[in-house]
Amino acid sequence: MGTITDTFNQESPDAKIVVRDINRVFHLKRTKTEGAREFIALKDINLEVQKGEFLVLVGPSGCGKSTLLDILAGLAQPTSGAVYIDGKQVSGPALDRGIVLQGYALFPWRTVRQNVEFGLEIKKVAKVERKAISDHFISLVGLDGFADRYPHELSGGMKQRVAIARALAYDPDVLLMDEPFAAVDAQTRESLQDELLRIWEETKKTIVFVTHSIEEAAFLGDRVAVLTANPGTLREIVKIDLPRPRHNSDIRSSAEFGWVRHKIWELLQNHQPEIRVPADSRPVADIISPSAAL
Ligand SMILES: Nc1ncnc2c1ncn2[C@@H]1O[C@H](COP(=O)(O)OP(=O)(O)OP(=O)(O)O)[C@@H](O)[C@H]1O
């Protein structure tokens, strides 16, 4: 019997997700000024995500981050190439993958608890067990006392916590997150990032996280995959060697963090990264303008 490695050239035996030669082409309709044409949204994407790894995807608007995440989720099919999770080709959505999207996507007619229990109902978990599980995850995301509230009675940050609890509750191995914190204010965003890292350390999920924010990518990721647009290609994967645990630390203000952020920023500027020693001795974090966060 052939091994997984034989089948699709998996490089690492610990890979949870293997993305092989993914291309995604959209067929654009004819307009008044242009004939029908093809648009290459993703070109030759190859990637492996290790078990328990936190991988972040960054790139300019339109580079295909959401398209790639949808393919990982099984919500969209690649034009060519394939995704394998635990050696099995992804052919559609499944409960081994939890998805958290921007804009919460909660069911407005369900309470917090009913939202969190949704996947468990699909799995036909018994009511008593469902309650124990939802209690655990509602508490894990810091929403004790809010189980009976409806989404419209919650703040944006709280809704996002419910979405995370809902995705975690049915115990997927992989969590796919598409700009989950984009709609909340800066302070809430930092506390949700802290919360997510704490939960990740506790649950050991494999996470693929899409963001526009260099700061967020550097803070969260074990590695950051930088994509470029037109066509969407994988430019480079940056390994983030910042120490963990990072949550509830002041790592964001360290010089090392500034260097990491700068490196990702340079890659996004579409020229080769180079480590420049600043003329003065201030930490790079103090020199880079805030606009480095896209
Ligand atoms: N159904 C579609 N038909 C045609 N083109 C599409 C379709 N869906 C996406 N695209 C194009 O594919 C490219 C990638 O889109 P995608 O949403 O994946 O980018 P993104 O990196 O997530 O962007 P953003 O950061 O702005 O959310 C874009 O240029 C988009 O216009």
Automatic annotation (TrEMBL):
SMART domains: AAA (SM00382). Transmembrane segments: none annotated. The keyword Disulfide bond does not apply. It comes from Geotalea daltonii (strain DSM 22248 / JCM 15807 / FRC-32). Residues 17-254 form the ABC transporter domain. Keywords: ATP-binding, Nucleotide-binding, Transport. GO terms for molecular function: ATP binding; ATP hydrolysis activity. CDD domains: ABC_NrtD_SsuB_transporters (cd03293). The keyword ATP-binding applies. This is ABC transporter, ATP-binding protein. Pfam families: ABC_tran.
